[in-house]
Amino acid sequence: MNSVFVYCETDKGQLADVSFELLTKGRILADRLAVNLEAVVADSGVRGKVEKQILPYGVDRLFVFDDPVLSPYTTQPHAALLSRLFSEEQPQICLMGATTIGRDLGPRVSSACTSGLTADCTALEIGDYTDPRTGNEYKDLLYQIRPAFGGNIVATIVNPEHRPQMATVRSGVMRAEVRDADYKGEVAYPDVARYVTAEDCVVRVLERHVEQLPTNLKGAGVVVAGGYGVGSKEGFDLLRALAKELHGEVGASRAAVDAGFCEPALQIGQTGVTVRPKLYIACGISGAIQHVAGMKESGIVVSINTDPDAPINALADYVITGRVEDVVPKLLKKTPQAPRRGDV
Questions:
Q1: Paired strand residues for 168
Q2: Degrees to nearest 5, angle at CA 102 with 96 and 108
Q3: Which of 115, 121, 200, 284 is buried deepest, with most CB atoms within 10 A?
């Protein structure tokens, strides 16, 4: 039990953004524990493509499993591979993205390893724990931190007895930072047949169709987000107009999505997208903790709300007290027009 493992997702040889974020956090945790950071990639046609992407994040050892049976992703081959690899390597910690793949794979691996798993973490730390019932003391456990009970509390979850300590983390809640562009880590290319049997590959994908999200909230420099206080679908048309003028994207709170004011793809927060725009305009959003978890790293936050004591106002840099339908049209009048083609 001498390592922190990160499962890296790939698509045609390119790592997912959340994998870079987890590698960065994994390096921090490994340094705190004085252990190795290790990473695993399981895909087809990735040998020679992923090493230079992963090693600069401070990875001490990278396992590259390259075989056609591993692509496109299906549950059993990947679950069998990871559980058997972990049985050999005995890691302390395993981190995965809280993606479609991570949410499918994580529980399978934790069950096979008879370990626990905390989903949708927003923070990870190392600390000690004393069991109040037995008085047993545990050193250097993984604090798996996430909102719970509908976002009314922030829970810190620990796994004192079983290994690996496993957590999935949402994309965007952590920063990705290269440790050293010339970091020298070991790369291993194991024989996939040692870990994945023919019985693990009885399910094959005959056709795969992937659709891109209609918005690019994660990469937006400006986000105009609406909550239940916007009041209607028509109210979101105002937000779209403002976002267009600011060259930004429209987002929403869960309350607005649940009310049918906009599509679920726009949801920001613990159960939606995490954003880090330079400017975040919160329109009619109360500021529940699960929403704040998805936008608290924004540069400048502007709150438009009829309630001067709304929780979002405590986070905001600027507060405009008023109705969204009154304030946004005034902002549109004051917003400088984008230069037209041919203007000097």
A1: 96
A2: 100
A3: 284
Q: Do strands 165-169 and 61-66 pair parallel, antiparallel, or not at all (unpaired)?
A: unpaired
Note whether 8 and 19 are within 8 A (CB): yes
Give me 17's structure tokens: 């953004």
Q: Scan for tokens 């203007």, then name that residue.
A: 343
Q: In what order do the strands lie in the sheet with 61-66?
A: 117-121, 165-169, 93-97, 3-8, 36-43, 61-66, 186-188
pLDDT per residue over 159-199, tens digit each?
998 899 999 998 888 888 999 888 989 999 999 999 988 88
Within the chain, strands assigned E span: 3-8, 10-11, 14-15, 36-43, 61-66, 93-97, 117-121, 123-130, 137-148, 153-157, 165-169, 186-188, 222-226, 249-252, 279-283, 300-305, 318-321
| pTM for this predicted structure | 0.77
Q: What angle do CA 234, 322, 325 make, to 5 degrees?
A: 15
pLDDT in tens, 265-294: 899 987 788 888 999 999 999 998 889 888
pLDDT at 338 over 50: no
